[in-house]
Amino acid sequence: MSQTTTGREDRVPDVAGGSLVEGFRSGRRDRQRLEFLGQGGAMLALLGRIGAAFLRAVRTGHFPAEELITETWYTIRVCTLPALAVSIPFGVVLALQVGVLAQQVGATSFTGAGNTLAVIRQAAPMITALMLSGVAGSAICADLGARKIREELDALEVMGISTIERVVMPRAICIVFVSCLLTGVVMFFAIITTLLISVVLLDLSPGTYLASVDSLASPADLGLSLVKAAVFGVICVTVAAHFGLTVKAGPAGVGDAVTTSVVVNFVLLFTANFVISQIATTFMGGPLG
């Protein structure tokens, strides 16, 4: 009897310890969920403040044009070549895959339409958004974070200058504008690449390629691509600015904020692309929506 009792007593701490560990893990998951919701709410609030600052600047005429021009030129300069460096190889791979598949199923006459719609509706805005979030977005986050830990942003607020209106809003307008602009550039080079590969390597006549594009593509596809580019630009700058403005723990915190902002941007961009594509498919039709 004593041995049985002793065995039960020995097992009690294990059960209690397991319950304690499980409770700790559950509490940590709850804190992570609450933190996630808090971050999302803070980003939406920041987006609202950026929109209000833009409307106020337009109404009052106090628009930081010099900051906007400087940031726009910097963003174009650092993002154009990386975007083209991705779009051209992507066009090669896309043309080969679509061309080979079209030959296997006997639908070579639709090769041009498949390549072009894939580039316009999906590839061009996504390539541009990923380059902007990885290059310009990280630069915005690092710049705002460095100013935050040096208390420059606090100094602006003390002097009565709105940080959102003076620093964040010009960058938001810049990213949206450059996103739409670079989407068109990426679109052009990717389509030209798919055309050249289809003609040179797959022996498809240029007339057949362009005829299928003309028969299936429409201006609505271009509009969808530009809408995606604008939405992706808003997401990119909102996430980057949020993590830059909430930096803590000094220079190490700036590095962590930049890494987190890029990861969160990528996740949100792919999610937004899926949602917009499904909405467009519902109202516009087409398998590549």
From TrEMBL:
Tagged with keyword rRNA-binding: no
InterPro entries on file: Permease_MalE
Keywords from the named record: Membrane, Transmembrane, Transmembrane helix
TM annotation in the entry: 79-102, 122-142, 172-202, 222-245, 257-280
PANTHER family referenced in this protein's UniProt entry, alphabetically: ABC TRANSPORTER PERMEASE PROTEIN-RELATED (PTHR30188), PROTEIN TRIGALACTOSYLDIACYLGLYCEROL 1, CHLOROPLASTIC (PTHR30188:SF4)
Name recorded for this polypeptide: ABC transporter permease
Organism for this UniProt entry: Nocardioides phosphati
